[in-house]
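Researcher: Structure for this, please.
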Amino acid sequence: MKLFGRSKGENYFKHPSRARQAFDFSKLLYGENKSAMDIDGYIDWRAKRVDFFFEMKYLDAPMPDGQRYGYEHLVKDGRVAGMESYALVCEHDVVNPQEVVDASTTRIREYFDGKEWHKLNGCTCKEFTDDMWVKHGGTLAYQT
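Model: Predicted structure, token format:
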């Protein structure tokens, strides 16, 4: 299976050292403390008109209100454009910030579907996205 031009098992990051590089957005501050936010992950199934935005949090770390509003706007805008968009807030328990977190095994704390936030305890990102893939007519490699 190819992931952005790489076979499964190959290094996913084109530039691993850059993945850990911090960016300072403090000089891009506008209005009432409006500044940039990062998006931890994004999947676009353009042919199926579905996309996902991912926010990864360590255990029960809170998501700031501004970040929550940002994801809500992204999802709502996607829906207006005809996409079935979702924002997923996922939890992991990897203490060491230098250690890579396997996003597929993170647990979804909650997700936003364009109308409301839904609590979802126990489901992994992989389970959620696999279910959506099948729901939209896709076949999983391990199903064939």
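Researcher: Any notable elements?
Model: The mean pLDDT is 85. The longest strand covers residues 50-58.
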